[in-house]
Amino acid sequence: MSQNYDIYLSYNEAMVNQGFNIRVFLHRTKSMHKIIIVLLSEIDTHFTDALRQNIEKTFNHPVEVRSKINSLEYAYDPIRDQYKSPFLLSRLKRVKRSPGDKIMGVADVDLYSPGYDFVYGEADVNAGVATLSINRLITGEQDIPSNLNLYIDRIIREATHEIGHLYGLVHCSDQKCVMRTCTCVPEVDAAGGGLCNTCMENLNNNL
User: Fold this and answer.
1) 4-13 and 20-29: which strand pairing?
2) Mean pLDDT of 180-199
3) Cystine design at 108: which of 39, 41, 54, 63 (Cβ 3.0–4.6 Å)?
């Protein structure tokens, strides 16, 4: 990643023949790109608020939430009664952003990708965009308020997983790490340890 350099100039007036002593300091700061969460469906504000706060804390970059509630019919597969994640990724690439910004589109529909029965999300690392479906993360329990914290935990884990890919993280063998491969909700629930030490170290190196 390219670095930005801020130059700070300060001076002290000295009662010497040379007049002013000029001191120049070179301070390196990280380029502050954003993580943009694009809402592709009507998503409960409890979920979006928790996502923004936790993603910002984990990845140490500002998070911007945008609403883009358009029809997703272009991605609908009537044979499977699911939506094509690669089609959403293609649309997300068109979202206006600054160089280095990462984008994650969040939807409440059931997603799939070729070769998979379903996906919780998908990342196009080269393009810097990812999808996240909350559909299967909240299905099965009817009372959202009483299960709110459980749903939030699941959504944050899968969001961290997909955005982690955008920052160069690969699947992890640690069963408690959010970068493990999850094929069912019980596996998502088991990945409650956040990023393991190895993945966190790799993330810090990549930020």
Assistant:
1) antiparallel
2) 93
3) 41
